[in-house]
Amino acid sequence: VLKIFDIVFAMTNGQWETQVLANYMYDKLFRANDWGVGSASAMIIMLLVTPILVWNVYNARKEMR
Predict the structure, then answer these.
(1) Which pTM was predicted?
(2) What is the pLDDT of residues 35-57, one digit of tens each?
(3) 20 neighbors 4 (Cβ within 8 angstroms)
(4) What is the rounded CA–CA span in Å between residue 34 and residue 53?
(5) Where are the domains of the chain?
(6) Cα-Cα-Cα-Cα dihedral sign, residues 22, 28, 39, 13
(7) Distances, alpha carbon 64 to alpha carbons 3, 30, 37, 52, 56, in Å
């Protein structure tokens, strides 16, 4: 989720309505100074990424055995 942020931001500088969740979080936190919505979107990103992270760690440990 966050890996795509720098690609989209560097190529478009946030223009042309390019929106991924990380760009939305950045816009709300730093451009619009809407700390509540920005923080909530950061928490949503964390909740979306955490199960994938746990699954990857579980599979990596299983392969090492």
Answers:
(1) 0.71
(2) 999 999 999 999 999 999 999 99
(3) yes
(4) 28
(5) 3-64
(6) positive
(7) 26, 42, 41, 19, 12
By three-state DSSP, how is residue 17 classified?
coil
> Quick count: other Cβ atoms within 10 Å of Cβ 13?
9
Number of Cβ within a 10 Å radius of residue 10: 8
Beta strands, E only, the chain: none
pLDDT, tens digit, 9 for 90 and up, residues 19-36: 788 888 988 999 899 999
Which of 9, 28, 29, 30 shows the shortest CA–CA distance to 18? 9
For 20-41, b where at least 16 C-beta lie within 10 A, e where not — what string?
A: ebbbbbbbbbeeeeeeeebeeb
Q: Which two tokens stand for residue 1?
A: 């989720």
